[in-house]
Amino acid sequence: MNAVEPVSAHLVLASRFENIEVAERALHDLCSAAGCDGDQLYWVVSALREALANAVRHGNHLQPERKVHVDLSVDSGAVTIRVDDEGEGFDPSQIPDPTVPENLLRPSGRGIFYMQQFMNRVQFSRSPGGGTSVLMVKLLQPTTRSSENEEPNPRSR
Amino acid sequence: MKSQIRDRGDVRIVELSGKITIGSGDVKIRELIDESLAAGKKHLVLDLAGVTTIDSSGIGEMVACYTTVTKKGGHLKLLRLSPKINDILQVTQLITVFEVFDNEAEAVSSFG
To answer: Tell me: the pLDDT tens digits for A71-82?
Structure first.
């Protein structure tokens, strides 16, 4: 990917699932402007969708008056996404591993796992208002695949 | 998400296309499977060739449908995964749960 001017956007969305499409469109446009290719874009958009779904459902409990704050930035080296909700916060370490046999048939609990697979960095913290803030980074430069990870991994794409 | 249903003998093939995502497609899958079970169809195939995106809610709903169908004595199998959906099933380990086919005739005959 050639060096490009950084592009960014800040969105404040009501807590509705249909607004995920709005953020997806914004990220799609930023990435396209920065020359982010189709495969990388697909996985980054997937991670954004999961972060927003968590913020709308688990953070803001589908209450439209509670907002989801989205910061998107793209430059030649990385896509950076920050999603803040106005909920009560949560401890991501309490989410069980969805890939162990006893959890495979659970109908939920894969969102954070998705994000971790699709992005190079996923970091949770408390937002200033007490809700959850998630920072995600996808490096756009080719990275060396980790030797301990032999399974197909969208993160390497 | 759009869907189309057709029966080949006692095997019901549910063709899905578009996005299977939270708040829309995920619920629709459940409705399609419930309707099929209510109609006595227990040999079910989800044809995913036209699916462009599936999020964790969509995957979760497919897993829930698999469990529901299995408890009713039926089988739910997958047909024609795109490379990206195949990747998702690989990393989530769900490829070990679902029987997956590339060819419709093979999927249909697998029910015996």
So the answer is: 999 998 999 999
CB-neighbour burial class of residue A14 (10 A; exposed 0-12, middle 13-18, buried 19+): middle
The parent domain of residue B31 ranges over 2-109
Distance (Å, rounded) from C-alpha A100 to C-alpha A116?
16
CATH number at residue A116: 3.30.565.10
- pTM of structure: 0.90
Q: Is the pLDDT of residue B37 over 60?
A: yes
ipTM > 0.85 for the complex: yes
- Domain limits at A75? 7-143
Contact between B23 and A17 using a beta-carbon 8 Å cutoff: yes
Name the DSSP letter for residue A146: P
Looking at the domain assignment, is residue A38 inside a domain? yes
Q: How many angstroms separate the Cα of A97 from the Cα of each of A51, A92, B20, B64?
A: 17, 11, 23, 17
Q: Which of A108, A115, A122 to mutate to test the interface with B (most CBs of B within 10 A)?
A: A108
In a domain, A148, yes or no: no
Tally of structural domains, chain A: 1
A103 close to B (CB below 8 A): no
Q: Report pLDDT digits (tens) over A78-96.
A: 999 999 999 999 888 888 9
